[in-house]
Structure formats: structure tokens, C-alpha cells
Specification:
Helix content of chain A: 25-40%
Distance between the termini of chain A: 39 Å
Structural class of chain A: alpha/beta
Order of helices and strands of chain A: HEHEHEHEHEHEEE
Largest interface: A-D, 22 and 22 residues
Strand order of the largest sheet of chain A: 3-2-1-4-5-8-6-7
Largest sheet of chain A: 8 strands, mixed
Number of strands of chain A: 8
Oligomer: homotetramer
């Protein structure tokens, strides 16, 4: 869907989740939930998730995946910027895909008190996420995740890499009174 | 300590934790806990941890780290094979370092019902873990984790890689009655 | 020097050279030669090299390195754009560093008939090189080179990665009459 | 063929060639030439190549590839150990695949005066090559080569990795009188 290269792989989700540093009951907003691979992982931490995607069919697929696991999340289908407004505050945000990353990050910077994590595979998105976060004064770090998985061959194993993903991490400016 | 290359890095811990698939209250044994970087992450999931290290000073350092986080784990200082016997069953096991990996994996295969995860950076350890698990019929997969982190430079960022780590995953043969 | 992360490593030079597809007696221009690690490799192929660097001390270091290997190249110290004008045509170009990459690539596109290779470690430079080449209609491909080297440890080896480098490849528009 | 993962990719060939440090007119033996991707690169350096493969159809494919490039090499179809005996001395050797790596490396150690390079993708082969070379006292280094290539997507690029390859480098013990 929005995230080129197919659904986010479990190892990449694990790294992104680690950067989010969620505590149970934290409120986290997910922009571009797609079919819900990351949504499921977020919900399994005990966090309260608001999942956003502009495609109703993505929301439906996500809900089916969550339901099969006996989990529920809040959700809304629409453009992220409009969907986030007035829904905060959040402890954390995850952006798996967005058409207007700059605007979304600007809003998240004000609505989030903790980690804002963007997963990106496009060079232009990696560059834009780093530049935008830096401009907003919220950039913390980025990591490139390159995972190779074993495949059995000739009685041993060889390595087959999955597409590398950049995990860009910022920190929201919202400070609780 | 036992794990060459220094303490396990957070992104690598995240991937290993993902492979362990711990549920709260699971019992997990950690072989070669070192100074406790992984122990802390295990304990934070709500699992009940038995941490083993043959070096008393490692156990002391681990306990201090856990205590600073307000967490406690069971622990024992000694050779892993002897320390595990009679302490099971466990839902999962993590091996961060061991002098006698073959013997330890043989014991874990019988004492663990879920994931057995070995982190290794030495080529000979990676090879031995895969071969031993395969011989025991418990090998599931291995992943190589290559993480690069951003470093600010000249108004942009460059990537600085950390040492790659192999995460070798098996599944214990213990079946609950 | 201009290229963050120190001199280009031999494996990265090998990949870049492969992309240049030099034939003996080809004329190749190198922008940002630094202390000459790549210059030496270019000269060893039998190509005729014009090495450019705006820092006289870099040129001096490069010449000393080449002289120690019994090789000579043409060279000029100054801003690349000015130094290239009127010096072509070239069969190939290598850019190891430049202050004004956009202008340099624009000039090279007209002066080079074969491969134009840019090595970059900064995210902003990778992005700019791809975007500029694409805008000029000369972009062919980019490859990310991640090399890990063995280090002896405990009777075996572990892997120590060197900084990843992007090699961006274009093709000059100069067509020989 | 013998080398799992298909023909050796150009960037990996470039790194391996760099490690071979061939000079024009050097004699190099290639064990497991397959369809000749590496053979062609070896021949293009001006080295004199002896290509060995136990499969006549591989030799035929290699010869066709070389012929199309206007190049010729010596060749022999058979088991490597038998084919090498009495054919040296060589300045360098490249092993792309072999059934009996240990025996072949033992012979090459005595017949080669310069670099002996083994490309391997199987974990067991990497391990065996390092262990055997170390036992023979000829191990120099190993490098893991992880290349990702750009793929155009959504007006930008993403990275698609190719299978990582280990390049294991030794140095033959033959000393010229």
C-alpha cells in the first residue's frame, strides 16, 4: 500500500517499537496503518492506538487482522492531518506512510509528548523526514535496518536480505502541565 | 564480557526480544547475562527471568542495573549447564554467551517449550549454533542484524554501522502435559 | 577531507571503479581527489587522469602518493566547475567530493561520454546526486555498499563494518561525432 | 550452479578482483568457473586464466561468454584437485565453488604465490574456508559484501539488496626462487 516493499517485516517492527518506548496505556497514533501489521504490534503492547489511513479498505483489513487477534483499536479513515487534529494528546506516534509528511510531522510535533517514529524506504522520504524533523527541532536519530534471513541450502544456510528500512526518530514538543 | 563487541545494542535486543515472543509471566532463562542489558529488557516485558552468568561480578553488575530500574530477577552464578538443570520448565531461553554452547543447547531443548534465541557475533559461534540446533531438530531460523545509526555531519547525517549480530532461533521440544 | 569518514576504502573503490568501466587510455576527470586513494586506483587502470581539488595541500598529498607508486596524473587546484571547463572531453568522471555538486554535475553531463560516478556518505549528498542526475536525464543507478571486515577474536572471527557508502552512477550526454 | 544464489554480481566481482591484485600477464586459476561471469572479469584484466569446472556444460557456457567478448582462456573440465596438479605455479587463485574445498585450498596453498580468494554464500562454506585457511597458515582476511541497488519508485528510489557474499582471502605459500 503506501509503504513500498510490502508490509513491514517483524524485525523492522521490533526496532521501531523499541524506539517508541511505549508503556501500557500510552496513547499512540499511527499514520498510514495499511493492513495493520504495525497496528497489531502496537496494540499488543497494551497501548491505546488510534489508527489512521486514508483508504477505507486498509482500515477494514486492519480491523480484520486486529479482530482475529482479539484486539481493538480506535480508527479513522481520512487524510492524516485532518484526522489527528483535536484527537491528542498522544505519548507517541508512528508514521508508516503519508502523502504530506511535512504537514503531518508539524502537527505531531505539537500533539505528541514522546517518540515520533517514521519508517521509510524511499530515499526522498528518508531525506524529507530527517530535514523536516531537524527544521522542527525534534530530530533525535535515524537508524538504517538491514536484516538478512537464513534460507536452507545444500545442508547449510545462506542469507537472503529483506529490503532495508530507515527508522527516523523524533521527540514531540508537547509538555504536560 | 562473554559477548564480544560490548553490550548488546538496543536495536539488536529489540529483534531478539521479538523472536522470543514472550507473554507476561512467562518464565525465561538467560544464559550469559553479562552486565544485564538484555536482562533488563526481558524483565521489562513482565516475564519472570532466571539470569545465569559464571562470573559473580557480572551478576553483581546485572543486579545493580535491574535494581536501578526497580526490577528484580532470579539469578545464579555458575556454569550454565549445571545452573539450568532442575530449574525448568521455561517458556523461552536467551543465550548471550556460553563456553559450552553445544551442551547448553542440548539441555535447553528439553527444558524449554518455546523460543530459544542465541545472539552471536563470532563466526564459529554462529556456525555452531546453527549446526547444533539443526542436529537437535530444533532449528527454526537465523537472522543477521545490520544496524547503521545516523551521525550528524556537515548539516546532514551520515551512517555509522554497529557490529552485525546473528540471532539464531530454535524452538524447545518441551511439550506441556 | 571533503569526503567525510576518511579516505575511500579499497572495497568501495573497487565497486566505484567497476561502475566507471574504464578502458586503457580513457580520459577520466576526478573531482575532489583528496589525498589520492581513488586517484591511484584510477591511474593504475592505465587511464589518463585529471585530478582536481580546491585544496593545494590535497593536491600535494595526492602527487606524493602517486609518485611513490611511480605514476603521474594531470592535476589542477581550484573550484571544480572552473577547472573542468575546456578540459574535456572525458570518457568518465569520478566525484569524491564537491561543494557545488549540482553545478559540477551539469558541466560533467556535457563533457563526459561515459560513466559519471559520485561517491557519497552524507544523506543530503546522496539525495542531491540522485535528484540532480535525474533532473539532467543522466541518472542510471545507485548502489549502497556495506562492507564488513573480519577481525580475529577468540580463535575465530567477528565482523566489523566500515561506513556504508553510496555510489551514484550517471551517464554523460556527450556523443562523439 | 555450484555457487548458490546465481551468477556472481558485478559489484561482488569488483571486490573479489580488488583482493586478487592481478597484474597483466599474471597466471590465475579459477576453480568452479560456472558460466564464466568471473572468468570474463579475470580475462579482461589481461591475466592468463585457467578455468576449471567439473561440469562440461559450464565450461561450454563459459567459453561462449568469453568468445562473445573476443577473449580466450585455458580451461579444463574435471575435479579441481586433479586439474590443478602440475599446472602451476600461479600468481593468484579464485574459488567460486568446489566440492572439496579443504583439499583444493591445500593444493592452492602450495601452487600459488599471491592471493587466494574464495567467494562463499553458504555459512558452512564461509566457516570452512576461514578454518581451513587458518589451519594452513594462509588466512589473511574475510569481508562480507552487502550491496543494495536502487529501484525507481514513486518518483524517487528505494534500495533492493542482493544476497550478501563473503570474500575470504588467503595468501599462497609458494615463493619464487
Amino acid at each position: 500500500m503506501e509503504l513500498p516493499g510490502g508490509p513491514t517485516q517483524e524485525e523492522v517492527i521490533a526496532v521501531a517499537l523499541g524506539k517508541l518506548r511505549l508503556k501500557p496505556r500510552d496513547r499512540v497514533v499511527e499514520v498510514g496503518c495499511g493492513t495493520g501489521a504495525v497496528t497489531l504490534a502496537l496494540a499488543q503492547t497494551g497501548a491505546r492506538v488510534l489508527a489512521i489511513d486514508r483508504r477505507p479498505e486498509a482500515i477494514a483489513a486492519m480491523r480484520e487482522r486486529l479482530g482475529a487477534a482479539g484486539l481493538t483499536v480506535d480508527y479513522v479513515s481520512g487524510e492524516a492531518a485532518a484526522c489527528i487534529e483535536g484527537k491528542g494528546p498522544f505519548e507517541a506516534a508512528f508514521v508508516g506512510g503519508s502523502r504530506d509528511l511535512g504537514e503531518v510531522l508539524g502537527i505531531l510535533a505539537e500533539q505528541v509528548s514522546g517518540a515520533i517514529v517514521v519508517n521509510a524506504v524511499l530515499l526522498s522520504t528518508v531525506h524529507a523526514a530527517v530535514e523536516t524533523m531537524t527544521g522542527l527541532g525534534i530530530f533525535k536519530e535515524a537508524v538504517q535496518v538491514q536484516i538478512s534471513r537464513s534460507h536452507p541450502l545444500a545442508g547449510s544456510i545462506m542469507w537472503r536480505p529483506i529490503d532495508p528500512v530507515c527508522v527516523i526518530v523524533g521527540r514531540g514538543r508537547l509538555r504536560c502541565s
